[in-house]
Specification:
Layout: E1 4-13, H1 17-24, H2 31-34, E2 44-48, E3 52-60, E4 63-71, E5 77-85, E6 93-100, E7 106-115, H3 119-149
Length: 151
Amino acid sequence: MTRTTRVEFDFHTAATPEEVVELLTDFSSDRPKRWPALSPTWYEVYEVGTTTADVREGQDKPVMWAREQYDWSTPGTVTWTVSDSSDLAPGSFVSLTATASPNGGSDVHGTWERGAKTAKARLILVVMRVAGRRVLGNYFKKVYDDLAAQR
C-alpha cells in the first residue's frame, strides 16, 4: 500500500473563476511559460477533449514527471490525476475549485493528495506535510494574481 499525503489549502485571487479554469486547462505550447514550476523538457500533450486532457508534465529540480489525466467536467473545478510517473503513485491527484468572491476575483480551495513510489517522492511528501499548505497556496495565488494583473 502506498502512503499518501493530503494537503488542503485556500487562497483568494484577483483572477475570476473562469480565468482559474482557463489557465489550468490551457494545454498550448505556452503552458510551461504560464506555469513557472513546469519544465518544457517534460511537457507533452497526448490528447485534449471537451472536458478532459491527457498530458505529461514535469519539473527539472528535482527531476520528476507525471502523466496526468485532467478533468474539468464539474463547473469551476479542475482535477488532475496521475496515471504514470517517475516518482508519484498512480491515482495521486490535485484539485482546484474556484468560486466567485463577493469582493471580486475568486476564492479557491485546493486539495493536493499525492502518493510516493520512490525515496525522493517520500522525502517530498514529508516536506509537504509540514509546509505544503503555505507553499501551494502561495504558488497558485502568485500565478493567478500575475494572470489577473495582465488584463
